[in-house]
Task: inverse folding
């Protein structure tokens, strides 16, 4: 670890203590994720997180990256959907262990808590997109590219939906951080299937226990307002453009 990264890590520890009531992520993983995100601070664009719980992680990124960006928080705020067979026995067992101290009410949280975390971060420009990913993400039409995309949505189907609808908006040289890659069986399966099925050459990297990939191919933004032939004119989520940092 470089001297610069050591100073980044110390700062990240401080940020963790500021937002610890808004995250279930441990100190080390939280801090390392912030160090990783800060390495991409010169890449302009949106910061998007799928699976925010109380908003502590993206609020920490906002504290590190600054208020001039736009931050998008995507979550059902109703907890996780049921895990499937592809997620593995451990995932199913976790979701059934409702009395476990690590259950966190199936990751259910109030949207107001996420908004409070973002207010604490001093990010003036953020948007919460509430709902199941399969319903909200097909309607997402950003007006600028995504610089940092963090996926913390656990299950195979959720990761798959996020990649199918958001990867195309990640800019070339942008980063995708995958929180549950080493935790649940379904997460890496969805990632590798997506990369293979779309002949995407991006490589999986690991930084101090955090999985990520850097988009190598050129981004292509969707020009129309349809998704797989279904009109989406009734309701669209748009991310407004901001001046770069």
Result:
């Amino acid at each position: 670890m470089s001297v610069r990264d050591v100073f980044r890590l110390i700062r990240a520890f401080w940020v963790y203590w500021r937002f610890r009531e808004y995250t279930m992520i441990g100190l080390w993983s939280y801090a390392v994720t912030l160090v990783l995100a800060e390495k991409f601070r010169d890449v302009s664009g949106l910061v998007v997180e799928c699976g925010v719980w109380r908003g502590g992680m993206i609020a920490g990124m906002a504290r590190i990256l600054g208020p001039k960006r736009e931050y998008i928080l995507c979550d059902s705020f109703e907890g996780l959907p049921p895990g499937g067979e592809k997620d593995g026995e451990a995932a199913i067992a976790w979701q059934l262990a409702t009395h476990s101290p690590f259950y966190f009410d199936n990751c259910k949280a109030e949207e107001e808590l996420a908004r409070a975390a973002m207010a604490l971060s001093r990010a003036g420009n953020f948007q919460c997109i509430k709902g199941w990913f399969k319903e909200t993400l097909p309607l997402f039409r950003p007006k600028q590219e995504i610089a940092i995309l963090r996926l913390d949505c656990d299950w195979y189907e959720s990761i798959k939906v996020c990649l199918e609808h958001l990867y195309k908006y990640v800019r070339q040289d942008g980063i995708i951080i995958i929180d549950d890659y080493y935790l649940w069986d379904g997460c890496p399966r969805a990632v590798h299937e997506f990369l293979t099925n779309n002949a995407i050459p991006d490589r999986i990297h690991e930084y101090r226990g955090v999985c990520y990939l850097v988009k190598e191919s050129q981004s292509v933004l969707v020009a129309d307002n349809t998704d797989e032939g279904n009109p989406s004119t009734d309701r669209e989520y748009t991310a407004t453009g901001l001046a770069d940092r």
Notes: The CA atoms of residues 16 and 27 lie 7 Å apart. Strands lie at 46-50, 71-75, 126-130, 146-151, 170-178, 204-207, 210-214, 226-227, 230-231. The longest strand covers residues 170-178. The mean pLDDT is 87.
